[in-house]
Design brief:
With about 160 residues, this protein is an alpha+beta fold. It has one domain. It is about 20% helix and about 10% strand. The strands form two sheets. It has a three-stranded mixed beta sheet, with no helix packed on it. A two-stranded antiparallel sheet has the order 3-4. A hairpin with a 4-residue loop joins strand 3 and strand 4. The longest helix has 6 residues. The chain is globular. The relative contact order is 0.22.
Amino acid sequence: MPRKPFWEYKTLGQMTVAEWESLCDGCGLCCLVRFEDEDSGEVIPTRVHCKLFDSQACRCTDYAGRKAHVPDCVKLTPYNIERLSWMPLSCAYRRLHEGKTLPDWHPLITGDPESVHKAGVSVRGQTISEEELADPEDALQYAAWDLSVDRGEEPYDD
């Protein structure tokens, strides 16, 4: 009898570091600059990415050392995912925490690291670096990403 994949029988807290890291689909949505409305508490994502983000590779250029360069970078753990309501609905960590499954386009399902991009879920090639802005507040003009859409159920087409 085939064994279930680890994400179907382990909690987030039971996963090894390698299993945990493999849940990242490489969409880049968590690397976007966000603003929080002081009155409503609404988090507004932008199309501006962190200075360490490579928008073509959809990866951090210094993942291991990112906190030294970006002190407010949030390290996602099994113990803080609950408090990170700004994470996109399509995020595997969030979905598993909420008792949902991985979407059909997720690289762990397809075996293809490009599937997240082919499915149109990633930010690849659609953002600018925060370093291109004269003033950090200029990022608000790029506020256009709708993370309230659950892209997790969209079918993956090759």
